[in-house]
Amino acid sequence: MKSFATLTQMTVFARIAESGSLSAAARDLHLSPSAVSKSLAQLEERLGVLLVKRTTRSLTLTEGGRLFLERATSILSDVENTLDTARQFGHPHGNLKLSSSIAFGTKQLTNIVGRYLEAYPEVNANIILDDRYVNLSEENFDVALRITADTHWGYAARKLACIRWLYCASPEYLANHADIDHPQDLTRHACLVYPAMTLDGAWTFRRDEHTQHIKVTPRMTSNSSLALREAALEHRGIACLPTYLVAADISKGHLRVVVPQYRAAIVHTLYAMYYRSKYENPLIRSFIDFLANEFGDTPPWERDALAASGMPYAKEYPRELYSLASA
């Protein structure tokens, strides 16, 4: 009678190979190092093949180990896909691991996820905020929310909302500096610059079908819109900030839109990125559908910001003005 390797043993072996050590695999799997070592020994005994060469400082796969890993990885992926297919007939439950940029996650995502968890009490969420692009497979994320204009990814993605930006400053700053009636007037002001919102060092302004590029000298530059918002609230100058970040500040009068007859010409897009094969999982599908329903045609923060600033809502901008940097 043949002695088969169990799925658990294959899972443990795959984690050992990926992490490069038994102790790291034990931490990832929430097992003791002795349990991981025992599982590997039992697997090698069942197969009659040495899979791993171990020394005090390193761990390497044998030729048999590399071949077995390739097949085991394929089998485990098939098993997961089979489980996802079965899950589509059930209710969303389990752990949802999400990735988001720091600014959007802080200001918008946590509240949205909270409402989703209220609707689906059998779901738990793990939100990781990081401005770098994550690898969904290597880091085991279910959904990554990214604000960008790039469309070249290795994942499926659903467009959720356009992310627009406003030029704004505190009332205190504006009261103590020269009037701003035209974008050109900004060349005489302290500018708080987010690099992804410039084209060759210029801020861009759009009115009707006309676009202007105003070269500004940054008083402060940062790759964090959160940092620039704080500087604007502290009366340091004029910043170009996303509506999802400053809608409440504008509604409360803490920030004021400058030259409201103009719009920032550069626009980004919010996407939910995921593996297409996982979309049949009701946990992932229901969350993405929930996001789309929450945002609608016009996200709530966009309505609030434009209503408070008196600016008209614009559906689209010319494609050539879309920034390729993430926000």
Task: Give descriptors for this structure.
alpha/beta; 10 helices; elongated; 5-stranded mixed beta sheet; D-Maltodextrin-Binding Protein, domain 2; 327 residues; disordered C terminus; Arc Repressor Mutant, subunit A; 3 domains
Task: Report on the architecture of this protein.
The protein has 327 residues and is α/β, with parallel strands linked by helices. It folds into three domains: 7-87, Arc Repressor Mutant, subunit A, CATH 1.10.10.10; 94-161 and 270-298, Periplasmic binding protein-like II (D-Maltodextrin-Binding Protein, domain 2), CATH 3.40.190; 165-266, D-Maltodextrin-Binding Protein, domain 2. It is 39% helix and 23% strand. The protein contains ten helices and 15 strands. The chain has helices at residues 7-19, 22-29, 33-47, 63-87, 102-119, 171-175, 225-233, 243-251, 282-295, 300-309; strands at residues 52-54, 59-61, 94-100, 123-129, 143-148, 156-163, 165-169, 191-193, 202-207, 210-215, 218-221, 238-242, 256-257, 263-264, 268-274. The strands form four sheets. The chain has a five-stranded mixed beta sheet with strand order 4-3-5-15-6, with helices on one face. Strand 9 and strand 10 (210-215) form a beta hairpin. The longest helix is centred in the N-terminal third of the chain and has 25 residues, at 63-87. The radius of gyration is 25 Å and the shape is elongated.
How is the quaternary structure best described?
Answer: single chain
Compute the CA-based radius of gyration. 25 Å
Kindly give the count of domains: 3
Please tell me the CATH architecture of the largest domain by its name: 3-Layer(aba) Sandwich
CATH class of the largest domain: Alpha Beta
Organism: Cupriavidus campinensis
Protein name: LysR family transcriptional regulator
GO molecular function: DNA-binding transcription factor activity; sequence-specific DNA binding
Domain HTH lysR-type: 1-62
